[in-house]
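Quick one, tokens below. Sequence please?
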């Protein structure tokens, strides 16, 4: 199977959903403790902005060996929810506060395509 065939299959699978999003981030291993600690005290304004943007069931998971973070959230419309967070006044402040924790390029969400879902 070629990359183009795989891309087409991932783009057209019936398991795709506009309601679920999974993404990767990469935290610098020496900053893991502080990064996890920061998420034990997410600013109330940030929590409110996420909720107002339509993010639900938002979770972060960590593979500590290399700092790989898997994020997951649900929304009525994932694209609209992400765009709403991009416009939220709190987002640039939160992203600036978190920037020190990420490996180079690791703070840019890499959205993963969904290809299977068991309801």
């Amino acid at each position: 199977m070629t990359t183009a065939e795989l891309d087409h299959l991932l783009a057209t699978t019936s398991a795709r959903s506009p309601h679920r999003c999974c993404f990767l981030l990469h935290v610098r291993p020496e900053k893991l403790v502080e990064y996890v600690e920061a998420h034990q005290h997410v600013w109330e304004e940030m929590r409110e902005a996420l909720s107002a943007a339509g993010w639900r069931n938002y979770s972060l998971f960590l593979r500590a060996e290399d700092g790989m973070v898997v994020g997951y959230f649900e929304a009525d419309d994932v694209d609209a929810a992400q765009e709403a967070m991009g416009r939220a006044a709190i987002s640039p402040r939160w992203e600036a506060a978190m920037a020190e924790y990420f490996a180079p390029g690791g703070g840019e969400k890499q959205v993963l395509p969904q290809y299977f879902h068991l309801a």
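The helical segments are 3-12, 32-38, 44-52, 78-87, 90-98. The chain has a mean pLDDT of 95.
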